[in-house]
Amino acid sequence: MPPLIVTSRHLAARCYTSLWSKREGHSEMDGAQIMKEDDKKEKTEEEVVHLRREIGLLPAVSFIIGTVVGSGIFIAPKGVLLNSGSVGLSLLVWALCGVLSLFAVASYVSLAFGRYVVEPFYAPCAAPTVLIKLVSILGVTFVVAVNCWSVTLASRTQITLTFVKMFALVLIIVPGVIALAKGKTENFQNGFEVDSLTLDRLPLAFYNGLYAYGGWFYLNFVTEEVINPNRNIPLAIICSMVTVTVCYVFVNVAYYTMMTPAELLLSDAVAVTFANRAFAGLASVIPFLVALSCLGALNGGFFGSPRMLFVGAREGHWPPIFSMIHIRRHTPLPAVLLLYPLVVVMLITGEIYQLINFASFARWSFIALATLGMLIHRYRFPLHPRPFKVPLVIAVTFTVVCFFIVGLSLYSDPWNTGKSGALTLTGVPVYYVTVYRFRLPHRWRHYCSTKLQILFEVAQQEVQTY
Fold first, then answer.
1. CA-CA-CA-CA torsion sign (162, 98, 386, 371)
2. Is 432 a domain residue?
3. Which chain regions cross the lipid bilayer (predicted)?
4. Residue 187 to residues 80, 191, 342: CA-CA distances in angstroms?
């Protein structure tokens, strides 16, 4: 049982009584009387603390597209080409990553945001790393503030930024298609040369491609806030991922019409190099649009990931403070704030391509284990109701491919994947000490939980939404 169960009215009464008793000299007995009287009043729908179903189909599609289309399409082409070895195979990797994502963490996105904001002011010289990371932290801070303030504000921000980033993709695709129609195809000749291909590096090509598609699963984290989830979740995933896959392939085709593979590998900001080649007059606009695109991906990540921590705490796998909601904002404030220092530490200490491999190993390991668990669950409980069902052959293929990529990447990049695995395993003793066998006396737990709850003005949800 959680060490603290205080309702929203209790919390408000405690805060008020604490100030009032200090000023007027009243005792805590008065506060208890206030809480009893408040509990007798019937709460309206707006007063009850719980997560609201405010996400319709358009916000759901915007949420996925806005989270997926971030820094990846402007950063990952270099990593895909480097590890795949040829133009044709790199385009195939992009398409397969989209299919894999259809069937099935935030620090590197923020670094990409900082890079695209800062680099135009220093071109053609390299931008200072410290300044890039400082701007990245500012971007993360803005997104955290939005997600702490309001679910509606975060949703509207996501819709707006999604339209901005789709405009950025169209701005890249159109001149590329025009150049291709005019016969600029020299970079596609002998596109499937395999001289540079090595199987041990191919998983890293998929990691970079899948990083660009990262975010397809975040909508599942906010199921409790989606209107008619049985219909809108699968429909939103299908519509958004087909759109993103088609756009990504065409964007990469556009890149290769303006840049040779060697030039693309030399560029740290592919979209900026493309803009300088395609339309010099609008070249300064592209970094701004890419930065907004990264901001949208960050917003989606900070909207979805805290819900996973929130549910974990609600199920007893995490300290109960993280299962609480702000009594007025109706946002999972403690869970959002927990991610903030973790992301800041990672972006300060890491480099973007190392972070991609580092984060991708942990992400796809857990995705593989999760899908394996669902297959086992389907076998053990075949009669359990399911809102929607994926064909068995797709689920098995997806799981096998995930385990193959994860396993081979241990050989391809043992240092970063090893660090990722080690960091993941540190969660075992943390869980054992803080949750499974919590050693602090009950009085201390009660005191700490109460103070944190009053500080953040949060309470456990009072309506079951799952």
1. negative
2. no
3. 55-75, 87-110, 130-151, 163-181, 201-221, 233-258, 278-298, 331-349, 355-376, 388-411, 417-436
4. 16, 7, 42
pLDDT (tens digit, 9 = 90+) per residue, 347-362?
A: 887 676 677 777 778 8
> What total of structural domains would you count in the chain?
2
Residues 112, 17 share a domain: no
Q: Does residue 92 share a domain with residue 30?
A: no
Q: Which of 157-161, 195-199, 331-335 has the lowest mean pLDDT?
A: 195-199
Q: Which of residues 324, 350, 376 is at a domain's end?
A: 350
User: Rounded to whole angstroms, how far apart are CA atoms 256 and 264?
Assistant: 8
* Model pLDDT, residue 13: 45
| Omega prior to 387 cis, within 30 of 0 | no
Residues 177 and 96 in one domain: yes
- Considering the domain boundaries, does residue 257 fall inside one? yes
Q: Which domain holds residue 146?
A: 57-350
- Residues 120, 17, single domain; the answer is no
Instruction: For residue 147, give Cα distances in angstroms to 237, 294, 389, 466.
Output: 22, 16, 31, 21
Can you say how many angstroms the Cα of residue 69 is from the centroid of all Cα atoms in its chain? 11
Contacts with 31 (C-beta within 8 Å, 6 or more apart), sequence order: 13, 14, 17, 18, 21
Buried b (16+ CB within 10 A) or exposed e, 395-430: beebbebbbebbebbeebbeebbebbbeeeeeeeee
Q: Is residue 228 part of a domain?
A: yes
Q: Is residue 451 part of a domain?
A: no
Task: Kindly state whether residues 263 and 146 are assigned to the same domain.
Answer: yes
